[in-house]
């Protein structure tokens, strides 16, 4: 642990610039869209998100296959896919786990 970057409890030291996350002052379109979707349409008094959901559902029910498939994927999620390396006889793969002291463990998988 670097004493310059961390305090005695391992927390970031005061005044240290944090890495990752969002930049201060930067504008993100998703934030604005999410805020707008929560607002009510003055004509219908419905939230825009509800109106949008109704339109998507109506298109899916009207046999728009593309919208139906996308809606299904949003609700259920994508199916898990297996990765096949095309090897029928099997292959041994040696995995070595390393740490600061060097070789820690070795496992064989098939």
Outline the structure in words:
This protein has 110 residues and is of the alpha+beta class. The protein has a domain of 55 residues. The protein is 33% helix and 14% strand. The chain contains 3 helices and 2 strands, in the order αααββ. It has a two-stranded antiparallel ribbon with strand order 1-2. Helix 2 crosses helix 3. The mean pLDDT is 80.
- Rg is 26 Å
Strand order, largest beta sheet: 1-2
Largest sheet: 2 strands, antiparallel
**Gross morphology:** flat
Uncertain regions spanning at least 5 consecutive residues: none
State the end-to-end distance: 37 Å
- Beta-strand share of residues: 5-15%
**Helix residue percentage:** 25-40%
Q: How many β-strands, per DSSP?
A: 2
Can you give the mean pLDDT? 80
Seen as an oligomer or otherwise, the chain set is single chain
Please give the count of helices.
3
